[in-house]
């Protein structure tokens, strides 16, 4: 099964989170670390290349957001519903004040939820390539490629999208061709699922709206930014603006674009370790 190959042998279980069946990968022990994927059809398996490395020092929890991956959908995925789901997920999995790492479109909803006080209490928030933290207009080419893949989720359209998402798609695949092909096939498979299509459409339509600086300033948890230097989807300038306006540290990962956890997993792990403050 393509999903099993994409999970790469990581332990997976299904839990009930507020009535929503949620698929969760869990590995390791130590301080809790939650990796929240972006707007991608496959859900949390996109973090697979960095889970084992991070699990040497942390208890890593990687859920599939409602409506993506193997998790059941909710009626309306917005900041409020995502925040409440995260609170319940923390309770179900026994997490207390984790470091929360958020990425891309889903990250926009998560940051908005935590800032508004409807999300979980976190020890630290790490924001990766999240469009809503600064001035953002979706690139025309990205919108075109996303719509094309949504209408016809073929292997060719998936590759076109990935070549825009990654700085060097072929180099990413060369790291682990078997895993990459399984990940790509699983993403393509989920992209043809009606509720996944609806969830992705909702995210594209709503999760790029900028969070006002006054709301970002309300974040009480220490917050840091991680960005790929050559991100074409959410340009580095978005992160630079947030860093300047909010005083958040910005860590830039070279030789990567929108998904440094896939493009430069070792550098991503090291950058995240540098960012995370000691528990206490």
TrEMBL record:
Describe the location of the AB hydrolase-1 domain by residue ranges: 33-271
InterPro entries in the record: AB_hydrolase_1 (IPR000073), AB_hydrolase_fold (IPR029058), Carboxylesterase_BioH (IPR050228)
Q: What Gene3D superfamilies does the record point to?
A: alpha/beta hydrolase (3.40.50.1820)
Report the source organism: Saccharothrix variisporea
Q: Name one GO molecular function term.
A: catalytic activity
| PANTHER family tied to this protein | HYDROLASE ALPHA/BETA FOLD FAMILY, PIMELOYL-[ACYL-CARRIER PROTEIN] METHYL ESTER ESTERASE
Q: Name one Pfam family in it.
A: Abhydrolase_6
Q: What is this protein called?
A: Pimeloyl-ACP methyl ester carboxylesterase
């Amino acid at each position: 099964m393509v999903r099993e190959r994409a999970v790469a042998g990581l332990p997976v279980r299904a839990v009930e989170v507020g009535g929503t069946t949620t698929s969760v990968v869990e590995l390791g022990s130590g301080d809790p670390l939650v990796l929240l994927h972006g707007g991608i059809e496959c859900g949390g398996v996109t973090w697979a290349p960095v889970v084992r490395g991070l699990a040497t020092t942390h208890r890593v929890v990687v859920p599939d957001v409602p409506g993506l991956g193997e998790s059941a959908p909710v009626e309306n995925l917005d900041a409020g519903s995502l925040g409440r789901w995260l609170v319940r997920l923390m309770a179900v999995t026994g997490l207390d004040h984790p470091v929360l790492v958020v990425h891309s479109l889903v990250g926009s909803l998560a940051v908005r939820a935590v800032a508004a006080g409807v999300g979980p209490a976190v020890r630290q928030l790490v924001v990766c390539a999240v469009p809503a933290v600064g001035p953002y207009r979706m690139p025309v080419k990205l919108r075109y490629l996303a719509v094309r893949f949504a209408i016809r989720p073929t292997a060719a359209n998936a590759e076109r999208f990935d070549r825009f998402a990654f700085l060097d798609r072929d180099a990413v695949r060369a790291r682990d061709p078997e895993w990459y092909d399984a990940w790509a096939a699983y993403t393509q498979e989920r992209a043809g699922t009606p509720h996944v299509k609806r969830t992705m459409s909702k995210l594209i339509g709503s999760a790029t709206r900028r969070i006002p600086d006054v709301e970002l300033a309300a974040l009480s948890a220490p917050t840091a930014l991680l960005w790929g230097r050559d991100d074409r989807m959410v340009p580095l300038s978005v992160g630079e603006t947030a860093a300047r306006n909010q005083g958040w540290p910005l860590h830039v990962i070279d030789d990567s674009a929108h998904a440094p956890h896939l493009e430069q997993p070792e550098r991503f792990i090291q950058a995240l370790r540098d960012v995370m403050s000691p528990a206490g």
